[in-house]
């Protein structure tokens, strides 16, 4: 489904409204994004069942009208999305009010800084292997924190002990070679 052309008229209306706010339009991630003083403020995009504005630092918006939502609860931290289902849902005055507030936050330098996630606890099975297989722990500790987290999550996501053991057998050679769990997908 061509999401952009499905909502072309509606997105054109939103972009026209956003251009009135004094923002600079650019294309990022294949969608119109509007910036202020070089910072991303708001974007517009069409999806399967709706079209939307997304505010990059929407977490700071007051949202007295309760029109904003977190697109992926637990994943999305700062962005907030305003969904529309028809052109009649668009209230130009209200859109501009939210955009002006977002621009004010941008001018004030408000930017959401994500908190670093703690390193997950190394599961018992892997700890046991550290004690019995020489050099495995130092190879694991030599990996980037991101790769360590990938391996830990891969092991703990398996519910059955048998699956955890099979996964552990699979990843030991990868850890020793210094490769991440998903490196094969990143190679070009």
Which features characterize this protein?
alpha+beta; 8 helices; 42% helix; 6-stranded antiparallel β-sheet; 188 residues
Q: Outline of this structure?
A:
The chain is α+β, with helices and mostly antiparallel strands.
Structure overview:
This protein has about 190 residues and is of the alpha+beta class. About 40% of the residues lie in helices and about 15% in strands. The chain contains eight helices and six strands. Strands 1-2-3-4-6-5 form a six-stranded antiparallel sheet. Strand 3 (about 40-45) and strand 4 (about 50-55) form a beta hairpin. Helix 6 runs antiparallel to helix 7 (about 160-175). The model has no long low-confidence stretch (mean pLDDT about 90).
What is the strand and helix layout of this fold?
Layout: H1 3-6, H2 8-19, E1 24-28, E2 31-36, E3 39-46, E4 51-55, E5 68-69, E6 80-84, H3 92-107, H4 124-132, H5 136-141, H6 145-156, H7 161-176, H8 183-186
Antiparallel strand pairs: 1-2, 2-3, 3-4, 4-6, 5-6
Helix pairs in contact: 6-7
So what's the overall shape? Answer: elongated
List the uncertain runs: none
Q: Could you tell me how far the N terminus lies from the C terminus, measured between alpha carbons in angstroms?
A: 28 Å
In the sheet with the most strands, the strands line up as 1-2-3-4-6-5
- How would you classify the helix and strand content by structural class? alpha+beta
The run of helices and strands is HHEEEEEEHHHHHH
């Amino acid at each position: 489904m061509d999401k952009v052309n499905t909502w072309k008229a509606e997105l054109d209306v939103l972009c026209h409204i956003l251009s009135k706010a004094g923002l600079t339009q650019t294309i990022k991630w294949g969608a119109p994004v509007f910036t202020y003083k070089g910072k991303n403020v708001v974007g517009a995009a069409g999806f399967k069942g709706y079209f939307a504005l997304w505010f990059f630092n929407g977490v700071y918006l007051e949202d007295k009208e309760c029109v904003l939502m977190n697109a992926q609860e637990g994943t999305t931290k700062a962005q907030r999305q305003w969904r529309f289902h028809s052109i009649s849902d668009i209230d130009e005055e209200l859109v501009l009010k939210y955009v002006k507030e977002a621009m004010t936050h941008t001018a004030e330098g408000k930017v959401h800084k994500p908190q670093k996630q703690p390193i997950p606890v190394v599961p018992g099975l892997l700890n046991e292997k550290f004690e019995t297989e020489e050099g495995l722990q130092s190879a694991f500790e030599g990996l980037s924190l991101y790769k360590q987290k990938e391996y830990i999550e891969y092991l703990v996501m398996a519910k059955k002990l048998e699956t955890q053991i099979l996964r552990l057998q699979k990843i030991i050679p990868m850890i020793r070679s210094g490769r991440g769990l998903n490196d094969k997908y990143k190679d070009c």
